[in-house]
Amino acid sequence: MKALVYTDVEMLTYMDRPLPDPQTGEALVRVMASGICGSDMHAYLGHDARRPFPLTLGHEAAGVISGGPEDGRRVTINPLVACQTCEFCRSKRENLCPNRQIISMQPREGAFAEYVAMPLRNLITVPDHVPLAHAALSEPIACGWHAVRLGKSVLGGDMSHLRCAVIGGGAIGVGAALALAAQGARDITVVEPNELRRSTLADVAGFEVCAPDEAAMPEEGSVDFVIDGVGFAATRATCSALARTGGVIAHIGLGEATGGLDVRRMTLQEITFIGTYTYTAADFAATAAAIFDGRLGALDWIEERPLCDGHAAFRDIRAGAVAAPKVILTPDPS
After folding, report:
1. Ranges for the Alcohol dehydrogenase-like C-terminal domain (predicted)?
2. Residues in contact with 315: Cβ distance below 8 Å, sequence separation at least 6, in sequence order
3. φ and ψ at 7, to 5 degrees?
4. CATH number of the domain residue 63 falls in
């Protein structure tokens, strides 16, 4: 099969790779849509020790089961494979499983390929009316859904009266904003410095979109719930400043490991900081259901490119030349 393989720092090679060999309880899925994630970009730049080359990246995927009794079933893929037996799995917090694996990290090759093998329990059926490129958004949006659910539990459940802000207008940030709206928030601002991307986001779902230096930027100390979808020191500093007394910061982004938080202010103002990692199986299923029934909007903010042009897509994303929050790689033209 063909695959887009990370072969060196800032190098992706479109090449032949062995067809995956599904194990007991797994299915072979023909990948029809696979999104480029920020973590794929980190690996591409040589910043992710968990993803050494050579490796097939990609973990935001949807496709069609190939072969076996469920041949032809349209599915979206939960890429996180948990052990099912540890204390975290038993308590339905599979994302914290100490033995978790995720495709695009060894030993599981990723979905920038024609096929991927996945456990059947990780596959959710996609209705015929839903494009598989939209179904592939289940993974990035589930990260925001999980963060919103955790923050909502601290803030008392009803978010209709809360002021919310999301830092970052990429797919994680947009997904978090859509998850906020789907879970009851009404006052949502997305902060995005890239002018090209802001122009794309303006009509996504009715939430406010602004640059950090614009008048629409929330005042310091005024936001009940802040979500960092980027994860750099500068964005954490922004979160620390924006959060009101007794507010919540949910941190999703993995841009860099340290710096930014005003711990003294967070302590004196009793601001809750929640580190969030991926999603539970229930979060993923809830996100997929919200996509299927239209609660997350038209999802028309994606750009599709063929897999064979994946390296060019990475270069364009790094250069800030892509307006869409998400680039989806699709099968090559026949």
Report:
1. 171-288
2. none
3. -110, -15
4. 3.90.180.10
The whole-angstrom separation of Cα 40 and Cα 46 is 10
What are the backbone angles phi and psi of residue 176, rounded to the nearest 5°?
-65, -40
Q: Is the peptide bond before 54 cis (omega within 30 degrees of 0)?
A: yes
| pLDDT category of residue 333 using cuts at 50, 70 and 90 | confident
Query: What is the chain's percent helix, strand, coil content, to nearest 5?
Result: 30, 30, 45
**Which range marks the domain in which residue 250 is found?**
141-275
Q: What is the DSSP letter of 331?
A: P
227 and 149 share one domain: yes
- For residues 38 and 33, what is the distance between their CA atoms, to the nearest angstrom? 16
Rounded distance between C-alpha atoms, residue 136 and residue 29, angstroms: 13
* C-alpha pair distances (Å), 151 with each of 145, 176, 250, 253, 275: 10, 12, 7, 15, 10
* Residues 197 and 103 grouped into a single domain: no
Q: Are 35 and 62 in contact (CB under 8 A)?
A: no
What SS3 string covers 224-239?
EEEEECCCCHHHHHHH
Of 255 and 178, the one with more pLDDT? 178
Cα–Cα nearest to 303, from 33, 77, 4, 31: 33
Give the C-alpha separation, 103 to 58, whole Å: 7
**How confident is the model over 70-112, as pLDDT tens digits?**
999 999 999 999 999 999 999 999 999 999 999 999 899 999 9
- Asked if 187 and 213 touch (Cβ cutoff 8 Å), the reply is no
Are 137 and 35 within 8 A, CB to CB? yes
